[in-house]
Amino acid sequence: MAEMAESGGGHKEGKKRAKKSSTRVDMTPMVDLAFLLLTFFVLTSTFSKPRIMRLAYPAKNEDKESEAPKVKNGITFLLSKDKIFFYTGEFFSASKPGPNGPTTLKATDFSANGVRKLLSELNMYVLQKKEGLAKKVQMKQLADTTFLRLMDEAKVQPDALKVLVKTDDKATCKNFVDLVDELKIAEIGVIAPVEMMPEELELLKQNNK
């Protein structure tokens, strides 16, 4: 507790004098209390957690002659400079064309009718699933934790869209980050930045003139 000390005056030559008092406040208990409160708030506070996006990095293929894995219900984005190209499904080169011939690239951008519209159309399965689950959450028929778990399960289903992102040495970091943001908005669950194949790079150069 704060300590207060008083000192009084004496009598001199028979005359009465008023008592003089001096006050001294001990601040030590108050400092202790401040540190106790600070420790309490530090230990009981909830710190904000950084929001991160999970990316799937496949193992490096040491066999250069092996064929690339087939992509089912997937789309591949090729980034170069300020341009974005894409193709859907498996890649077929001119030397090994598929049922519909060799793969052709299509250009897109970040406009309203660009990447966002494309992803929303291809990932309709997950977006419709999200809409139905969100209604149940609003009606308090589903807990938030259950909603997140069901969404994670829906994103890895065979009907969900899978995305491969490939860049050449001229691609900008801004376009890559913007593309990842669009993938997050479209609720894409499987996103894999992978190395560009030589055939893809050659096709990209032909379209990037």
Write up this protein.
With 209 residues, the chain is an alpha/beta fold. It has a domain at 74-207. It has six helices and five strands. It has a five-stranded mixed sheet, covered by helices on one side. Strand 4 (162-167), helix 5 and strand 5 (190-193) form a beta-alpha-beta unit. The mean pLDDT is 82.
Question: What would a concise description of this structure say?
Answer:
This protein is α/β, with parallel strands linked by helices. The chain has a domain at 74-207.
Descriptive labels:
209 residues; 6 helices; alpha/beta; single chain
Topology:
Blueprint: H1 28-44, E1 74-80, E2 83-88, E3 106-108, H2 115-122, H3 124-138, H4 144-155, E4 162-167, H5 173-185, E5 190-193, H6 198-207
Parallel strand pairs: 1-4, 4-5
Antiparallel strand pairs: 1-2, 2-3
Averaged pLDDT: 82
Strand content: 5-15%
Label the structural class: alpha/beta
Inertia-based shape: elongated
**Alpha carbon gap, first and last residue:** 82 Å
Please summarize the sheet with the most strands: 5 strands, mixed
